[in-house]
């Protein structure tokens, strides 16, 4: 059977073209019956389209799988980064708390020295005891600075890393 494709629109899909041709064939009953059975329809294009479509679907599945793996990896990396940041913040807060305690202790020592100085001023107006108290206060300040210096350097380094 010969299919007349002259009256079929050429910009349609293959399946639509085939459907239109079959309709026209049904309308044209003018052809003898022995001509209809002579040519078998060719559906190879349909098999090829199905194969191409299956290949496309498998490629899309592979792409979606790769995208899913990448998203999972990104989530893992973000979780690790968040955990590291939380640990760094906890360490920084501990260091700040330690520094605050050291400074509070230093203020307490200075307050105590001030009270002692005022008590000594009332008791004696001698210059030597005042010099001694000044030396003791200076030594205490130096010891405090030496004790806090490693913490301050660590704090400054951490602040540089964060910034």
User: How many distinct helices?
Assistant: 4
Whole-number count of domains: 1
Q: How many DSSP E strands?
A: 0
Average pLDDT for all residues: 79
Share of residues in helices: over 70%
Q: Could you name the ranges where pLDDT drops below 50 across 5 or more consecutive residues?
A: none
How far is it from the N-terminal to the C-terminal residue, by CA? 81 Å
Rg of Cα set = 46 Å
Structure description:
The structure is a single chain. The longest helix has 80 residues, at 44-123. Helix 3 (44-123) runs antiparallel to helix 4. The chain has helices at 14-27, 33-36, 44-123, 127-162. The mean pLDDT is 79. By secondary structure, it is mostly helical. Helices cover 82% and strands 0% of the residues. The protein has 4 helices and no strands. The protein has one domain (14-23, 43-162).
Tags for this entry?
82% helix, rod-shaped, mainly alpha, 163 residues
Outline the secondary-structure elements.
Blueprint: H1 14-27, H2 33-36, H3 44-123, H4 127-162
Helix pairs in contact: 3-4
Describe the structure concisely for a colleague.
With 163 residues, the chain is mainly alpha-helical. It has helices spanning 14-27, 33-36, 44-123, 127-162.
């Amino acid at each position: 059977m010969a299919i007349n494709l002259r009256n079929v629109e050429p910009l349609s899909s293959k399946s639509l073209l085939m459907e239109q041709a079959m309709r026209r064939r049904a309308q044209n009953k003018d052809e003898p019956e022995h001509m209809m059975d002579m040519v078998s329809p060719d559906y190879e294009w349909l098999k090829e389209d199905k194969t191409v479509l299956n290949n496309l679907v498998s490629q899309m599945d592979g792409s979606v799988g790769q995208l899913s793996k990448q998203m999972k990896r990104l989530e893992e990396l973000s979780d690790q980064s968040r955990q590291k940041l939380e640990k760094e913040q906890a360490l920084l807060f501990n260091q700040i708390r330690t520094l605050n305690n050291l400074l509070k202790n230093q203020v307490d020592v200075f307050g105590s020295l001030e009270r002692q100085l005022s008590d000594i001023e009332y008791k004696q107006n001698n210059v030597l005891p005042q010099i001694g108290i000044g030396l003791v206060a200076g030594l205490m300040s130096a010891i405090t600075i030496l004790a806090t210096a490693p913490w301050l350097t660590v704090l400054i380094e951490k602040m540089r890393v964060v910034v």
